[in-house]
Amino acid sequence: MLPLSVVILAKNEAHNIERCVKPLLGLSDDILVLDNGSTDGTQAIVKALGARLMEVEWQGYSATKNNGNQQAKNDWILSLDADEVVNDELVASIIALFATTMNVQNGFSIQRKMVYEGTVLQHGSVGKEFRIRLFNRTTARWNQHEVHEDVDVDSSVVVTSLNGYALHYSFTSIEDHQQRLHKYAMLSAHQMHVNGKSSTWMKRVVSPWFHFLKNFIFRLGFLDGKLGFEFALQEKKYTAEKYHLLYQLNRTKNN
């Protein structure tokens, strides 16, 4: 096994967790699943797969993930969400990587491919999405964003991309997409409010349409057909909602 810990965040992921964990069993003997109060049988599936289950108190996305990284047995961390599935080429890339001398001043990004209503979106904002997901915990950590968190690395760290990809089964339906984006909009608005951001008329009215055009036209989302349009439309609504919520928060503060 590789000197690598896999850290997975999960809550009520019984429909995803086995698909996520199985391709990882040949990589690491420390697959750590951070479970935040699942009630759908996720915990039993994790134990049956032989992964390590850790029941955690929710501290927010970044803080919970950072806490999990500190509980891992190895300094090298592969961080995944329960709705992500690595493909064979990515597994081979990681194995080949650890056949070399690993340097803590390196970090590695992984391509994610969005599976939307059973179809992989090839274009739009998720067409070429790379995220830092393999890193050494001594030189990298999750930032403090309330939503859309990412990995911050030390200034000396060089980030390169790995071959292969992870399929991202993020939304089970358009309704699920809408519910998730509503949650993300509230978190984003709160984060911007705390950071002193303002919600101008341009941001509330023009920005949502700009993001739609960028996603659907400039990033060729239209090539994904009806699903590409639907995805771009929901993302537009998300942008409009987060700036509307920020506007309300700003008004409340000023009154």
In short:
The chain is of the alpha/beta class and 255 residues long. The protein contains 7 helices and 11 strands.
Summarize the structure in words.
With 255 residues, the protein is α/β, with parallel strands linked by helices. The chain folds into two domains: 4-171, Spore Coat Polysaccharide Biosynthesis Protein SpsA, Chain A, CATH 3.90.550; 174-254, no CATH class. Helices cover 41% and strands 26% of the residues. The chain has helices spanning 17-21, 42-49, 61-71, 88-98, 174-194, 201-218, 225-254, and strands at 4-10, 31-35, 52-55, 76-81, 84-86, 106-116, 119-120, 129-136, 140-142, 151-153, 158-171. Strands 1, 2, 3, 4, 5, 6, 7, 8 and 11 form a nine-stranded mixed sheet that branches. A two-stranded antiparallel ribbon has the order 9-10. Strand 2, helix 2 and strand 3 form a beta-alpha-beta unit. Helix 5 (174-194) runs parallel beside helix 7 (225-254) and helix 6 (201-218) packs antiparallel against helix 7. The longest helix has 30 residues, at 225-254. The radius of gyration is 19 Å and the shape is globular. The mean pLDDT is 95.
Give keywords.
single chain, 255 residues, 2 domains, two-stranded antiparallel ribbon, 7 helices
Helices and strands, in N-to-C order? EHEHEHEEHEEEEEEHHH
- The number of helical segments is 7
Which regions have little confidence, pLDDT < 50, spanning 5+ residues?
none
Radius of gyration: 19 Å
Q: Categorize the overall geometry.
A: globular
Q: Describe the largest sheet.
A: 9 strands, mixed
CATH topology of the largest domain, by name, is Spore Coat Polysaccharide Biosynthesis Protein SpsA, Chain A
* Average pLDDT over all residues: 95
End-to-end Cα distance: 59 Å
